[in-house]
Amino acid sequence: MAQKNIGKSVKINRTKCLSIHSTLNYQFARGQFIQNYQKNYESYSKISLQYYGDNTKYFDSDVQLGNGTFGNVYVGKTNKNETIAIKRLNEFYKWEQHYQEIFILKHINNVPHIAHLYDVIREQKYPNTTSFIFEFINGTTLHKSARNLTSDYEVRYLSYILLKTLNQTHELNVIHNDLKGCNIQINLEQLSLKVLDWGISYIYHPYQIKSNIGGTVNYKSPEQLLNSNFVSHFTPAIDVFAAGLLIANLMYRGTDLFYSHFDYEVFSKQIQFFGYKKMTKLSALLNVNINSTIYSNFTLNRTGFYHNSYLKRRQFITTDGINLLQQMLQINPADRISISEALQHKYFDSIRNVQESLFHDN
């Protein structure tokens, strides 16, 4: 696999791993320690499917919105003519495999700017398939919307809504773990934003060791790329890094800072951006050896924020905006500002009061 060239993992035990991450100050890193964590996975067993029976014949789902690993998403209509989104799982996936997703969606269902889960059912037409019934979101992906932005205010406003939403879910101990452009839906006419697809999100615990599952390579943090082959301890800082890249995408009107389809290419771009010495310092803390033969000759290149190829798209780049990105895109997760701290950044000073009053109305 492509990521094998990044580094070689060192066999470690749980105690040593926790010691390493204590060195990184993960447990108390910038407000990311969650004191009120309670592991409620036993609640999964209390969730039961609801059978709508004949009512499902009113679900008109001919229009496909998208597809993914677990199934396809369609536009549907209820018997009350309400528009909904139907995520129909592939037949070989059982609903019991989605306990965690269902639990988390119910856990965060009061957060305003997410795609809310209405129900989990079996449709009459598809008795062997589980369907998730979601709120229908009328919008386009962040990438497409970013190309049509017309003002600096729109960038700041949408960035603030994104951070406000993540701050609320982080307060509920939930890490999204797959933030990317196509999981953010924006309606520019209403200037609204929704965060979608919580399929690989999880409840955070400061001492939990977790396998590095999922995530989209363009938005992976350095610690995720370094730990691509084994389990480790990931914090809400991975969402901070991905959110920083999404905000950069808005500022650059649809351009990804670390675009690639392969882990090793993104890792190469991050080394050029952060510098080889900083990456090796982080790898030492994580107890991972970087392949020096491949990466040691990479030169530091931080022109990503200012490169000439972005000149035509740079009308939304400001000094305060760059400062925000620099604080969110720190290589060491313990050095990144938290989502709540990002919300207080001076980049949002001029419009914070307006955004706060409108946040619950969109």
Any chance you could write out the topology, listing elements then pairs?
Layout: E1 7-9, H1 14-23, E2 50-51, E3 63-67, E4 71-77, E5 83-89, H2 99-107, E6 117-123, E7 126-135, E8 140-141, H3 142-146, H4 152-171, E9 174-175, E10 184-187, E11 192-195, E12 202-203, H5 222-226, H6 237-251, H7 263-274, H8 276-286, E13 288-290, H9 292-295, H10 319-328, H11 339-343, H12 352-358
Parallel strand pairs: 2-6
Antiparallel strand pairs: 1-13, 3-4, 4-5, 5-7, 6-7, 8-10, 9-12, 10-11
GO molecular function: ATP binding; protein serine/threonine kinase activity
Keywords: ATP-binding, Kinase, Nucleotide-binding, Serine/threonine-protein kinase, Transferase
Catalytic activity: L-seryl-[protein] + ATP = O-phospho-L-seryl-[protein] + ADP + H(+); L-threonyl-[protein] + ATP = O-phospho-L-threonyl-[protein] + ADP + H(+)
Which features would summarize this protein structure in a list?
3-stranded antiparallel sheet, Phosphorylase Kinase, domain 1, 12 helices, 6-stranded mixed sheet, 13 strands, 2 domains, alpha+beta, 362 residues
Provide a descriptive summary of the structure in words.
Residues 59-348 form the Protein kinase domain. Its EC number is 2.7.11.1. There is one protein chain. The chain has twelve helices and 13 strands. It is globular and about 60 Å long. It has a six-stranded mixed sheet, with helices on one face. Strands 8-10-11 form a three-stranded antiparallel sheet. Strands 1-13 form a two-stranded antiparallel ribbon. The model is unreliable at 1-5, 8-58 and 306-312 (pLDDT under 50). A hairpin with a 3-residue loop joins β3 (63-67) and β4 (71-77). The chain is an alpha+beta fold and 362 residues long. The chain has helices at 14-23, 99-107, 142-146, 152-171, 222-226, 237-251, 263-274, 276-286, 292-295, 319-328, 339-343, 352-358; strands at 7-9, 50-51, 63-67, 71-77, 83-89, 117-123, 126-135, 140-141, 174-175, 184-187, 192-195, 202-203, 288-290. It folds into two domains: 50-135, Phosphorylase Kinase, domain 1, CATH 3.30.200.20; 140-356, Transferase(Phosphotransferase) domain 1 (Transferase(Phosphotransferase), domain 1).
